[in-house]
Amino acid sequence: MKTEVIYYICLQQYKIMEVQIINRSKHELPSYETLLSAGMDIKANISETVTLNPLERVIVKTGLFISLPKGLEAQVRPRSGLAAKKGITVLNSPGTIDADYRGEIGVILINLSQDRFTINNGERIAQLVIAKHEQVKWKEVTILDKTDRGDGGFGSTGV
Description:
By secondary structure, this protein is mainly beta. Helix content is 12%, strand content 31%.
């Protein structure tokens, strides 16, 4: 009973938005694997397998084209399973797809392992997270407000 109430409350807090997408791949649209997933797996849309040697990088096309509303971005992130098990990750993580980009989504993958890795058509290669963002207007000043941390940089807050 308690679990059902919490589940109902969680569902009530979700807002579903529609985003225009063109799918020129041979695969289904990206989708959430579980009810509370933040990211949707995206798949390689390639005519031939691609082999990545250690430390090699490649842009893998997806066959997907999107139109995001102003104030949103799509973030291309690594899949944790590929990263942990195979050493394959997204090089510019997270990769940003801006709201005004209309080209095909490509994923920059890099092989950080010591083994060759083969990418097959339809393989889940990354995940896509849609996120809100703000734009700023810079206000130049001569002094910034004080904080306890101050100008302490890398490693300054401890181990």
